[in-house]
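hiii, so i know i said id send this last week but things got crazy w the move. better late than never?? heres the sequnce for the chain we talked about at the cafe, plus the structure i predicted for it. fair warning i was half asleep when i ran it
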Amino acid sequence: MSDRPLRIAALAALFAVAPVLAADYTQAPGSKLQFTSSYQEEAFSGTFPGFATSMTFDPAQLASSRLDVVIPLASATTGNEDYDPEMRGNAFFDAKKFPQARYTATKFRALGGNRFAADGTLNLHGINKPVTLTFTWTPGAKPVLDGKAAVNRLDFGVGSGEWNDTSLIPNGVVVTTHVVFMPKAAAAAPAAKPAAKPAAKAK
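okay and structure toks below
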């Protein structure tokens, strides 16, 4: 009697119990990381050019999902020539000493529909604190994450001296992000070389 049916059954059982892994994504063009605050009750916003996001995510496999965001601080800008040097300087980001911040999350919660929460850790100014990012996930060939988080700047020592005064700048800062993703495999694939032009015929 052939043992082929047994081998087929064993193979089917292996696939049945094998874990389904979340997909790996990297940030694509069109992404933005922004913060909003106010100075003497006058609202202002800024961005973090050059931030980089990688994510492993599947709404059906939250246990194996993870998020990693690297945020350069020396390029942070509000577009205001008076604000930017102060913000990057010793009293706030101290970007020369702490050139980047980093947000990582390995715990995710479903909030219903396409809404989720990432309970992660922000490393900023040499300090680690928990920060929750709530976000929507729009699936597709290039999935999109739209998220929002509240960060208390004084928890990270951002704003020393007179800038501790929350009547000048509130403690709470709102951070929003719009991240367009592409599969890591596609990002790593080498670009196709253009076809070589045929050699000109000798006259």
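btw Residues 4-17 form the longest helix (14 residues). thought thatd interest u
miss u guys!!
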